[in-house]
Amino acid sequence: MNIFIGIIKYFIVPIILFLISREDIKSKTVPYKYLLLLVLFLILISILNEFLISNLMVFIGILIVMSVIAMLFKNSLGFGDVLIFSIIGSIYGLKEFITVLTFSTFLVFIFSVIKLIIQKQRELGETLPYVPFIFLSLLIKIVLLIWE
Question: Would the CA dihedral through 16, 18, 21, 26 be positive or negative?
Fold first, then answer.
């Protein structure tokens, strides 16, 4: 792997996701300036790896599937979350996308159960910022990849 691609995948993308996580926690929004940065790094990685078409196909496929899920289950995912998952799938691959999706869903479930037990009452319609869980899941996956 090109060292520049490694720096982007294992250092820059997680930092951008951390910044998005902070904003998501504060305002439950995903700033488009950070999404644009992620897309630019995706394009750069795709060009350097000569995988532009396959990365685009992965991006579109995940975008469609996750958008349908977001529409079917209202308040489950925002469009920023869908875009982040699409970008992760394109940069890291489908296997890593599935792992991050699974880990993040599991972390949200655990956090929700703990929050429910501690608060003993949950407001209907209350939503959680999802990007922090995506970020933590990606960090776990990166550690596992490095460990292998």
Answer: negative
